[in-house]
Amino acid sequence: MTHDEALELIGAVPGEVSAELQAHLNTCAECRAHRDQMLAFDAKLRQALELDWHKIAGTAPPGGPIPKPPAQASRSVPNPAGADPNAPARATVTPLTPKATAPLAKHTRPRVFALAASVAAALVVGGVLWLTRPAESLAAEVVTHVEGEPHSWEKTEPVTTEKLDAVLRKSGVNLGPGMQTVVYASPCWFRGHYVPHVVVTTKDGPVTVMILMHERVKAPQQFNEAGYSGLLVPAPTGSVAVLSRTPMDLEKPAANVVHALETAGPTSL
Q1: Helix or strand or coil: residue 212?
Q2: What does the longest C-alpha to C-alpha distance in the chain come to?
Q3: If we measure between CA atoms, which residue out of 7, 81, 15, 72 comes closest to residue 42?
Q4: Which of 30, 81, 103, 217 is 20 to 30 Å from the Cα of 11, by its Cα?
């Protein structure tokens, strides 16, 4: 199994490991770290999407036992005056209160409809919020992804042109000239798409770049998350995220990536 095939399988189903993939993981620290990052990311997504249905639907059982209705007294009908005292007493009569079925129906039906409406509204709102996650959430997910590949910062040798082209082609991205030297490149599964995850060298140190063709931001946004300094900037298609582990000016490397995207030919998206 090749390195790219392993990355693709991990991105598609990180929770499943075939014998062939396990053999590759045993010898590839990069793929092991990538799988750990994907598993952690999936766990965070599941946690974020969990809903407390008892709170939404109001179906939590009431505290304490349900009190029993008070017993109704029996009423005996005495023998009329002058009747034979040895005659058997008439049957004891216990008056019955009619069941209030109509009010129950009136109250139950609206409650069922209200419950269904609440659940449907919660699903709609949750879906809308998930599909329109703010830039703060995007920045946090970028940092989480980069944390899963700590070895990427250690690379110093330039990536071959063939490998960089393969990463860009898998992600559907074309780049023109202008970027700094790339020392790490990998096609990474991020928010449902393969994206180029590269590390470039600058005079101030290494900088991670993620080209997010399917994510849009309205304006440049700086962020600091988990010890990383970052910048999200709009691009001709999508956006670009740049991160560093030390404080530095990230505008220039970000501008270089945007310029490389602007001078490139049409993408394969």
Answers
A1: strand
A2: 121
A3: 15
A4: 217
Phi, psi of 47, rounded to the nearest 5 degrees:
-65, -40
- Please identify which residue in the block is written with the tokens 């060298």: 201
- Least Cα distance to 144 among 87, 199, 210 occurs for 210
- The pLDDT value given to residue 39: 84
Report yes or no: 261 and 250 within 8 Å, Cβ to Cβ.
no
- 202 closest CA partner among 257, 146, 128, 164: 257
244 vs 121: which has the higher pLDDT:
244
Q: Which domains does the chain have, with CATH numbers?
A: 1-52+108-132 (no CATH), 152-262 (3.40.1000)
Per-residue pLDDT, 87: 54
Q: Which two tokens stand for residue 21?
A: 């993939």
Residue 64 DSSP label: S
What's phi and psi for 166, nearest 5 deg? Answer: -65, -40
| Sign of the Cα pseudo-torsion (75, 79, 85, 87, in order) | negative
What strands, in cross-sheet order, belong to the sheet with 193-202? Answer: 182-190, 193-202, 205-212, 239-244, 228-234, 221-225
- Residue 9 — pLDDT band, cuts 50, 70, 90? confident
Taking the CB of residue 204, how many other CB atoms lie within 10 A of it? 14
241, 232 Cβ separation under 8 angstroms: yes
pTM value? 0.52
Does 92 score more than 60 pLDDT? no
- Residues 210, 240 contacting (CB under 8 angstroms): yes
CA 83, chain centre distance (Å): 85
d(CA 265, CA 119): 47
The size of the chain, in residues, is 269
